[in-house]
Design a protein that fits this description.
This protein is mostly helical and 276 residues long. Helices cover 60% and strands 4% of the residues. The protein contains 13 helices and three strands; from the N terminus they run ααααααβββααααααα. It has a three-stranded antiparallel β-sheet, with no helix packed on it. β1 and β2 form a beta hairpin. The longest helix has 19 residues. It is elongated, with a radius of gyration of 23 Å.
Length: 276
């Protein structure tokens, strides 16, 4: 017990509370693997207490941007690429691709790995009238296949990207990956992460990382109507609403109380709404 407390105190001075919880949890798991018969109750109790105490070092709420604003931003950037004064063709193609990525991520908030790995003919199947997005059960976190249409609003933008800007980025090279960098290579997860943060910081004043689009999706839906938590869970690929509420719903308390007061007032004076 004394050694464990000393270890926790040492870590507490070095890492944030969530990382501290994870270190103790991981230690318990490592010992379980090495010695299945080991008594790990003390470690597990410590991990549980630390889990309750853990607080994010950077609250998500401050980084949550309305979903419609993110979608608008993507469309604005694509328009910039098409209407800006004549520049290097690669610059225009890169800007257009970035705008399309942001807009699509707002409409289809996929996980970063899935989004970056989108492949033509496999995950992105372009048909005459519409495009479909597919992920196999082996590619999703909840082990369920994902099949949805490409957003109709962005269908013309996809066709423009595939016909004009993606070939510019490829520079005569070949790749079946959807997202191509200015170097003519498939985009990486780290490159995608950095690019999204950079452009959102410049345009919105907030560095929005790709995962935060998922927070925005859940929060925007639930702000519109609390019952939408079921739809939010489905869009994010969660089996239940518990994960959605615990990690993705950044709805401000003020909004929650606003709904509560409206419902309470309607219950206290049900005739008032009818008279209005």
């Amino acid at each position: 017990m004394v050694l464990l407390r000393a270890y926790i105190d040492t870590l507490r001075a070095q890492v944030q509370s969530i990382t501290l919880r994870n270190r103790i949890r991981d230690l318990a798991e490592a010992l379980r693997v090495m010695d299945p018969a080991a008594d790990l109750r003390l470690l597990r109790r410590a991990a549980q207490c630390l889990r309750i105490q853990a607080v994010p070092s950077r609250p998500k709420g401050a980084r949550t941007v309305e979903l419609d604003r993110l979608a608008e931003l993507g469309c604005e950037i694509m328009a910039e690429a098409e209407t800006a004064p004549v520049r290097n063709a690669i610059w225009s193609a890169t800007r257009y691709r970035m705008g399309l990525m942001i807009a699509l991520l707002a409409y289809r908030p996929l996980r970063r790995g899935n989004f970056v790995a989108l492949t033509l003919g496999v995950h992105v199947q372009v048909h005459d009238q519409e495009t479909m997005l597919y992920l196999s059960d082996e590619e999703t976190k909840n082990n369920r296949p994902y099949a949805v249409p490409w957003p109709a609003k962005l269908e013309p933008d996809l066709r423009e990207y595939l016909a004009v800007y993606r070939p510019m980025l490829l520079k005569g090279g070949k790749s079946d990956r959807l997202w191509i960098t200015h170097m003519g290579t498939p985009m990486t997860e780290d490159g995608f992460y950095g690019a999204i943060r950079k452009v959102t910081l410049k345009k919105l004043g907030i560095a929005v990382n790709p995962h935060a689009f998922r927070d925005s999706a859940a929060t925007s839906l639930i702000l519109e109507n609390p019952a939408n938590v079921l739809y939010a869970a489905g869009i994010l690929g969660h089996s239940t609403t518990n994960t959605t509420n615990a990690h993705y719903n950044q709805t401000p308390a003020q909004a929650a109380y606003g709904w509560y007061h409206a419902i309470l007032e309607s219950l206290l004076d049900p005739d008032e709404e009818e008279e209005t």
